[in-house]
Amino acid sequence: MRMNDHMKTQLVSAIHLQEVELQEKPAEDQQGTRVCSDADPTFTVEDAVETIGFGRFHILLFLIMGSSNIVEAMEIMLLAIVSPEIRCEWRLDDWQVALVSTMVFLGFMVCGVLSGYVADRYGRWKVVFGGFVWSAYFSLLTSFAPSYGWFIFLRSMVGCGVAGVSQGFVLKTEFIPAKYRAYLLPLASIFWMMGSMLIIILGMTVVPTLGWRWMIRISVAPSIILIFLFKFIPESARYNVSAGNVQAAVKTLQWIAKMNRVSLPPGRLVEAAEEERGSWRILVSSTFRRTSLLLWYSWFVASFVYYGSVLSSSELLEKNLLCVTDADGDHQVKHRQEGGLCYCIPFGISDYQTLLISCLGEVALIPLNICLLNVVGRRKTLTVLQLLSAILFMMVNICTTMFGFTVLLFLLRSLVSMNFNVIYIYTAEVYPTVARSLGMGFCTSFSRIGGMIAPFMAQVLMSQSVILALSPFAVTCVICAALNFLLPFETKGRALLQNS
């Protein structure tokens, strides 16, 4: 009995001693590791991004990720340049030429949702890098296509790769502070314009001498260079915390802060992991259902009118379907025959020059775009741009001089490019991190439906009637402008959501 009392006394003393030690060292565990208490300061990725601000990292990010737009533009705009050449080589009808663009956008549409899901589940960086490698490989193979069938198959594979590359916009957006997004993201049009102009210059200089196959081979070079530069871009910190990899997110934010010569907020990064990442249910939940439906149509229209303007200008120039009051001898000939259209109608130097000038239109109104985004917001900017695009599409039907047509084409390309850019920005801002890439993937897939239909309007119907071919582009713009008023969220100046 005494022994039991003695043991009890020792046990109580030991427990009391342990409590005293814990009170004296409340922030250390058994290995001497610091354990933060509830009173320690904490911060989120959003806090860190805003504290870091804009600096050298963002310039690097802007240049490398902007260069991805050069590659994407070259792969898509290549279709407008190569169409007359493959029409001639394989003696294709209008619908066969249009099918090339449609198959490219079909590959983009199928892989758009898949790339968005993979990016939300396994990371943005992997998808974008994989898209670069995939598109460069199949684009190179396209230059060796022995037949029309092989050509459209390989170009559809290129479309799959470009779908992955487009996720780079999400990766870029998640690193940019809220107050800088309306300034930096519209500038992506500069890189798209550079890619468009580069492929036109290649067409002008390489196609007449070496042919379209060498033009494609040379156009792959920027993709290969960019693959090696991509190692300087980290995985999204927002994705890492949503996946529960807080340590990786901290390392990324510390590296960015060091590059920008600033410090992270005091305390520790605390953000809950999200199990439901990349779920389509988030997109059709009560919170985002109306937004998703309206955005899917807006993306359809954005792609429909953009590629409609690109392919229409190419077709009008190639077949001399313009109503031009001062046309030269070559452009007075309407390339029509009783049995169909002529097969071989290559671009002339003046046609390439007109396309180059129209490409400049993609950046001419960037200051106006930035002003609209910051003053009136995203939704109203979309409405203004879509209404003006509708007017310009109908004005292309007006008989004018070649200079007048070039000006109209210049303004039209400016407006449809700005519209595409704003819809990219709004989509990246409105969806939460757990579904941002998937939301972008669904939207880009719906946009490619518009891209699939546009060639049949711009390249098939155009031969029958210019006004009938251009009217659908104007009508869809007007409808979309009206529907923008139903969008429930304005994202101007709003922080990016982490979850729904």
How would you explain this protein's 3D organization?
This protein has 500 residues and is mainly α. It contains 22 helices and 2 strands. A two-stranded parallel ribbon has the order 1-2. About 8% of the residues have low confidence.
Keywords summarizing the entry:
single chain; 500 residues; two-stranded parallel ribbon; 2 strands; 22 helices; mainly alpha
Count of DSSP strands? 2
Report the mean per-residue pLDDT as an integer: 80
Taken from the alpha-carbon principal axes, the silhouette is globular
- Which spans have pLDDT < 50 for at least 5 consecutive residues? 8-38, 334-341
Adjacency order of strands in the biggest sheet: 1-2
Number of helices: 22
| Major sheet description | 2 strands, parallel
Helix-strand blueprint:
Elements lengths: L1 H23 L17 E2 L1 H8 L3 H35 L3 H29 L1 H19 L5 H18 L2 H6 L4 H7 L3 H18 L1 H4 L1 H8 L1 H9 L7 H6 L3 H15 L7 E2 L10 H4 L5 H31 L29 H16 L1 H10 L2 H18 L6 H29 L5 H25 L5 H18 L17
Parallel strand pairs: 1-2
Helix pairs in contact: 2-14, 3-4, 3-6, 3-9, 3-12, 3-16, 4-5, 4-6, 4-21, 5-6, 5-12, 9-11, 9-17, 16-20, 16-21, 16-22, 17-20, 19-20, 19-22, 20-21
Produce a short descriptive summary.
By secondary structure, the protein is mostly helical. It has helices spanning 2-24, 45-52, 56-90, 94-122, 124-142, 148-165, 168-173, 178-184, 188-205, 207-210, 212-219, 221-229, 237-242, 246-260, 280-283, 289-319, 349-364, 366-375, 378-395, 402-430, 436-460, 466-483, and strands at residues 42-43, 268-269.
